[in-house]
Specification:
The complex is a heterodimer of chains A (287) and B (258). With 287 residues, chain A is mostly helical. Chain A has helices at 3-12, 15-37, 42-48, 53-68, 83-93, 98-109, 119-132, 137-149, 154-165, 173-184, 188-201, 206-238, 246-250; strands at 267-269, 274-276. Chain B has one domain. The chains are: A mainly alpha (287), B mainly alpha (258).
Amino acid sequence: MSRALALVLLLVAPLVPLSQAGIDRLAGAQREQEEVLYLWSGEHVKRLVPGFESLAADIYWLRTVQYFGGRRRFVGDKRFELLRPLIDITTALDPRLEIAYRYGAIFLSEPPPAGAGRPREGVLVLEKGTRALPNAWRLRQDLGFFHYLFLGDAPTAARILLEAAQIPGAAFWLRTLSADLVARGGDRAASRRMWSQMLEQAEEGMIRDNARVRLQILDSLDLRDALVRGVLEFERLYGRRPGRLEELVAAGLWRGPLVDVGGFPFGYDAGTGRVFIQEASPMWRPE
Amino acid sequence: MGRGLSRALAVAANTFRETVRERVLYNLVFFAILMTLAGLLLGQLSIRQDEKILKDIGLAAMDLFGVLIAVFIGTGLVSKEIERRSLYPLLAKPLSRAEFFLGKFAGLAFTLFVNLSVMLLGLLFTLGATGRRPDAGLLTAVYPLFLGLLLVVAFAMLFSTLTSSTLAVVLTVGVVVVGRFADVIRGMREVLPGVPQQLTRVLFAVVPNFANFDFKSQVAYGEAVSAGILAWVTLYAAAWTLIVLGLGLASFRSRDFQ
């Protein structure tokens, strides 16, 4: 290669990333969105890649994790309307990709900003998964969990957990959890058991992180309830509600900081005696 | 018979050397880079699906590169010899057209075998290097893949005896694509109930079902492919390949090179 040609190549080469950055800056977001929207149906995508469906599913799965993975470039601009089609396309291409159903269901169901806040769609994704993988007890277990945790439907959750328990290899405690739901209609302890199981079963990553946060939220709710009891005790002792939560500490009714597990101070309404997790806290979820 | 075989093997060896000289095996360098990058990146990206995705990428690359080599080299095996007029002195020697034709087929088959073997070793190495158990079950996906490639070569050679190499490429790619959609033909009546059942049966029978050679997804999930099904696939491939090679040979024999 002549020296002049090498020089030209060296000068031109940086223009490629430079122009790409310019294109991304001006059209990046739209282009990424359109890319998925063009291929809305999983069945259509499947027909485009005969013999390479599994690889195409991997590519869509990686796109999904990139979009919603939370640690990468799309973190500031999560467009949850894309999540369901991405999951549908991925699972149409590879119906056995169990992680895609579980992942999709969680982030469809979680309320904003963590998820799309569409728990019924999350349940539909899991139902699709249980039809594709009838022997996957964890998927059916998740379906039961979601009916309880996100839809508050304890009887359906109990029935599905019992179905999951009958699948060969299923965990023994599914039966007792199902019985508890039937007997008590569900409570925070049941939620804690479910999220603990999800934490234990999930590999390191988004699903595990989410379960960890959910358990911290339950801990925060326990703390809040203890504070409410403290407020009631204060009222019983002094004949009035405390003006601020700090008065509980001064009265010896509370030890330790008045913050939730995320480190945010609890909110307090002296008028009603209501203690609450503040919306700014990562522990806050709509009730 | 013995001399005929040795002459065919000589053509095969020459064909193998020729393909190597044409830098066909350069795709292995690309494969090595692909596997290395995939191995490095997937662990972070894929949420514990890296082993499955590595296998998917490796097997898909073997399939894709294999088909490309089979089509583009396969269609040129005979037609190039004709275009370069190097066929005439060959046929003037004590070498039958059958020995030439089958020797060419065997040579490219060996190239594909070497290509797939090296890629398989590369995939096993990548799995091992990323802390995964090298899976001998991958062989049960690669073997039928190889059988499918032999059939592609047979088609490529058949078409190259009938028409120009460019058109032969188009026709071979067409057969491969249609063959991968063979299930659509079988299920045609589900969307077009008016189509006579006999027609769909005949169409399905005359199109090679390339989906029969595809066990990539099963193997990537660690599922076993039974010896029974592999035996049937072998028989299917042998039958189709012999038929197509036979047709190609008949066409080649009937050509007038004067």
